[in-house]
Write a structure and sequence with these properties.
The protein is of the alpha+beta class. It folds into 4 domains: 1-69, Helix Hairpins (Orthogonal Bundle), CATH 1.10.287.610; 90-322, DNA ligase/mRNA capping enzyme (D-amino Acid Aminotransferase, Chain A, domain 1, 2-Layer Sandwich); 325-402, Beta Barrel (OB fold (Dihydrolipoamide Acetyltransferase, E2P)); 440-520, 5' to 3' exonuclease, C-terminal subdomain (DNA polymerase, domain 1, Orthogonal Bundle), CATH 1.10.150.20. The chain is built from 15 helices and 17 strands. The protein has helices at 3-24, 32-49, 97-111, 186-198, 207-215, 220-223, 247-256, 271-284, 302-308, 369-375, 440-451, 463-471, 486-490, 497-509, 515-520, and strands spanning 81-83, 93-94, 118-124, 127-134, 137-143, 149-151, 175-183, 229-239, 266-268, 292-299, 318-322, 327-339, 344-356, 359-365, 382-388, 392-398, 432-433. The strands form 4 sheets. Strands 12, 13, 14, 15, 16 and 17 form a 6-stranded antiparallel β-sheet that branches. A 5-stranded mixed β-sheet has the order 2-11-10-3-9. α11 runs antiparallel to α12 (463-471). It starts with a helix and ends with a helix.
Length: 521
């Protein structure tokens, strides 16, 4: 094979791998921007080496191999598949203003018009879903899947408050297939991560990954404990055929039907007006309660959409303009390891404080040892930091040009930073774990979880008290709490007779909390 063919084979392998991580595993390891650059290079090479799309691996296995599917596939074997009435495509996207105007120019040439009418909507960073109503009753909720058929997730969305189950009070088409996005708002994401932190578990990376994992939970009751929301923005099938003259009229109709639609919707009579709406959205989006990572620009008249048609991947009448995440450069001053209650060891970057998206950032997640090695992150490096999903700070890349000449690679420790027990990692897992159940940090994590509001709800037994009890050797396991006397609490900083008595009584009364609480702990 030639150098170009070798590179195309490599890029196709990368795209397949990242598609699997993003769509099926809900755990991508690169940013959307990095993925888009890889896929753009692959598509450019495909156009150069195989402009007619003629070559398949079965025709010439040594040439360029199997093409990557046009739309990523999120289907899992544990779910029932359901065929979309109308194929559910993806969107072409760009980060470049010129490419947006090139998109407009292609359409103006197609329609022989000097200007075209558009609508501009937010691009929500969630999980694409197709919702079908029959006779006004919610029948199915299906993921995009491979664009032709997806996984049925109806039961996992039955507790989404904003999704009506019954629209029979309105005059509706017999069958209505609507496209939208499942997302998790910032407040719920923070709440769930606070629970993870309390329990000593690794934090969720961003709202999109958490929403994607939630809709694919096998237990709908567990999914119901995580608050998901939905916004609807596009038409799939409509039987009898839709009479909507435009995209903006479609939004008016679904709003009238009490279906959740976008907060921001701007009509534009030209690409220039659409561009101003994009800039306006970029200013406003941080005030929304959900992650918005771009703008979607669509031809407004439905008849023009039909005439423009689609490729195998995306409609020709729409494009997504992706906003740049705010990034800042700073110095990574140290890497510290946190040990959770289950023994998971999580690396955290200690940063020279920097302002990012309205807050001061001094720490960032490094996820695991493999991520540190993949990005070659070293103490003392200048690094670029961004907020994943506008919430969690993460190190995006190292500024290699500024690296000190005496810099050395970071070696992930082989022993627990707290108890010095050798770390272990099971095959197929990314996380290293401390296997010592008496590791002080694990003990603290288990006690904090046991005393928390969601478990035994023990008043006065807060984090600072638990830290002292473990550090003084008074509590090495949960059962030790029930052997402590008032004199043990009087030995703690800040305790007097009354506060020691209150804590003693709270622990004693927790014995009567019931089996359900105990099982939770």
């Amino acid at each position: 094979m030639s150098g170009g063919e070798d590179r195309l084979e490599e890029l196709r392998g990368l795209v397949r791998d990242h598609d699997r991580r993003y769509y099926r595993d809900a755990s991508p390891i690169i940013s959307d921007r990095e993925y888009d650059l890889i896929k753009r290079e692959m598509e450019d090479l495909e156009a150069e080496l195989d402009p007619l799309g003629l070559f398949k691996a079965e025709d010439s296995p040594d040439l360029i191999g199997f093409p990557v599917p046009a739309v990523g596939d999120d289907r899992l074997e544990e779910f029932v598949s359901h065929r979309h009435l109308v194929p559910m495509l993806s969107l072409d996207n760009t980060y470049d203003q010129k490419e947006f105007f090139d998109f407009d120019q292609r359409l103006r040439k197609l329609f022989d018009r000097s200007e075209l009418p558009y609508v501009v909507e937010p691009k929500i960073d969630g999980v694409a879903v197709s919702i079908t109503y029959e006779g006004g009753i919610l029948k199915t909720a299906v993921t995009r899947g491979n664009g032709v058929e997806g996984d049925v997730i109806t039961q996992n969305l039955m507790h989404v408050d904003s999704l009506p189950h019954d629209l029979t009070s309105f005059e509706l088409p017999e069958i209505l297939e609507i496209r939208g996005e499942i997302y998790m708002n910032h407040e719920e994401f923070v709440r769930l991560n606070e629970l993870r932190e309390r329990d000593g578990l690794p934090l969720y990376a961003n709202p999109r990954n958490l929403a994607a994992g939630t809709v694919k939970l096998l237990d709908p009751k567990e999914a119901a404990t995580r608050k998901l929301e939905i916004v609807l923005y596009g038409m799939g099938a409509c039987i009898p055929e839709s009479h909507f003259p435009s995209q903006s009229a479609f939004h008016e109709a679904i709003r009238k039907w009490s279906l959740p639609t976008v907060e921001f919707l701007r009509s534009a009579s030209s690409a220039n007006e659409a561009w101003q709406a994009i800039l306006e959205l970029d200013e406003l989006r941080h005030g929304y309660g959900y992650p918005t990572d771009g703008a979607v620009i669509k031809l407004d008249p439905i008849e023009m959409q039909r005439q423009a048609g689609a490729t195998a991947k995306a409609p020709r009448w729409a494009i997504a303009y992706k906003f740049e995440s705010e990034r800042q450069e700073t110095v990574l001053e140290d890497i510290v390891l946190q040990v959770g209650r289950t023994g998971t060891v999580t690396p955290v970057a200690c940063l020279r404080p920097v302002q990012l998206a309205g807050t001061t950032v001094s720490r960032a997640s490094l996820h695991n040892a493999d991520e540190i090695a993949r990005k070659d992150i070293r103490v003392g490096d200048f690094v670029v930091v961004e907020k994943a999903g506008e919430i969690i700070p993460q190190v995006v890349e190292v500024v290699a040009a500024k690296r000190q000449t005496d810099s050395t690679p970071y070696l992930f420790p082989s022993s627990c930073p707290v108890c010095a027990r050798g770390l272990e990692r099971e095959d197929g897992e990314a996380a290293w774990r401390c296997p010592n159940p008496e590791c002080p940090e694990q003990v603290k994590g288990r006690l904090k979880y046991f005393a928390s509001r969601g478990c035994m709800d023990i008043d006065h037994l807060g984090e600072a008290v638990i830290e002292q009890l473990v550090d003084l050797g008074k509590a090495k396991r949960i059962s030790d709490l029930y052997t402590l006397g008032k004199e043990d609490f009087l030995a703690l900083d800040g305790f007097a007779e009354k506060s020691a008595e209150n804590l003693f009584n709270s622990i004693a009364s927790s014995k009567n909390k019931g089996l359900a609480r105990l099982l939770c702990a």
